[in-house]
Amino acid sequence: MVKHLFLSVLEISISASLPAVLLLILSPWLSRQYAAKWKYYTWSVLFLRLVIPFHIPLPRPAAASIPLPLAADAVTAAESLPVPIYHNSAKAAGISLLDVTAAVWFFMAVCFLLIHILSFLYYKSQVIKYGTFIGDSRILQQIHSVKTSLQISTDVPVIAYKDAPSPMVIGFFRPVFVLPDSTYTEKELYFILKHEFIHIRRHDIYLKFLYTCAAALHWFNPAVYIMRKEACIDMELSCDERVVCNSSYADRKAYTDTLLSALDKHHKKSASFTTQFYGGTNIMKKRFQNILSDRKKRNGFILLLAILILTAAANIFTGLSHPGKESAELAAYIKDFSGSEIALDFAEYITDDDTKRKRKLIRELNLTEGDGLYDGNFADGYYIYNPQTDYVTYPVSDDAVYQFFDWGRDFADSDLPEDLFITTSDSNDFSRYLNTYENAKPGMPFFIELKDGKVIRITEKPMA
After folding, report:
1. pLDDT band at residue 26, thresholds of 50, 70 and 90?
2. CA–CA dist 113, 110 (Å, integer)
3. Which of 5, 113, 184, 449 could pair covalently with 188 via S-S, beta carbons 3.0-4.6 A apart?
4. CA 8, CA 403: separation in Å to the nearest integer?
5. For residues 182 and 265, is the Cβ–Cβ distance under 8 A?
6. Which residues contact 95 (CB under 8 A, 6 or more apart)?
7. pLDDT tens profile 360-402
8. Across 92-212, where does the E strand assignment appear?
9. Rounded distance between C-alpha atoms, residue 295 and residue 34, angstroms
10. pTM to 2 decimals?
11. Which of 163, 174, 166, 161 is nearest to 128 (CA)?
12. Which CA distances in Å does 251 have to 79, 247, 258?
């Protein structure tokens, strides 16, 4: 389960990084042309994509397969099949490198998320424990006025906390507005409250949690960390734009003075899952320029739509490129079967009439004149090419179909040809059938049908 989740996350990490990198490259130009809120919306879409591990299903043509012979022919073929030859050089099913990699990924993802959650819980407990609830009527009246103008009905208590790095909102379901133990003018307090309550109005703390979840799942991808930082910057820029919307230059200048004053008084590292943000001198300079700019910016709906289309296209591309996502039938030796998972050593089934593939095989095997395969037809009409013995583990669908021949008459009392070809959806029956072979490993490959990364059909076909 963890392994397949890891593979899905890996694909999504690649598909979402493509539009993200393009967005980062074009960011300076986009910031001049479009309001920050459009990039803010775009980042939200990309991060949402990063935490949803699925691909858009596409209709696909039915996979070409070797048709099953008629029942009577199958029995004749069964009698003529040689005794299975077991490939003792093949790996026994066990823990693969992919299993270990997936386990490490899962462990790191859980640790990453837990560290941030525990850090948040500890910081909030410190605020509640050592902070002081504010009952100043001047502040409470300002809060009521701002909440009314923003149509916020949520009750938000106010706490003064001396170690707060800056004014912030902390908490999800019961947000708390935290003020440093400082004195603010009425104008400064108004801008601070409006900025923080816009964050509450837009549920930005939930978005920051989304960013953190994405960073946890994709901790191995440096692009996600850059995306996370840029998303937080655009969140602040878009919030600034909302605060000074339709304001005079004097009010916008007063707002930048408020931000600068807050930074002069407190300058500490950002806490997890709060609206507190600094980002450094260059980022603050960018915010001030954006606030004071009189430039008319364009509607960014087309930008958002373009990123959505690009993300969908990247999603489809990576889905197509993954062999487990398409419905396909492949030949493979069964190395282990537990009912819910199957370990497969894939092989290539080459028929005698496939002259093009035969010529290529001769080159791959470095055959020379005098070798049997070089001089004539395949002895049994086919050749099973299995250059590697590594196996891959796939989940088995709950409604998978198993088809096999009852060589030893273990399932059918009848000798009638039509009764010897067994079709069942019971994995226990198939497991019992495999146990009739030495080490429960048939010497001939089965035909495996995969769809959406799962095995949906396992079929035994006569090879002669």
Report:
1. confident
2. 5
3. 184
4. 29
5. yes
6. none
7. 777 777 766 556 565 555 666 677 777 776 778 889 999 999 9
8. 132-133, 158-160, 168-170, 176-179
9. 10
10. 0.65
11. 161
12. 92, 6, 10
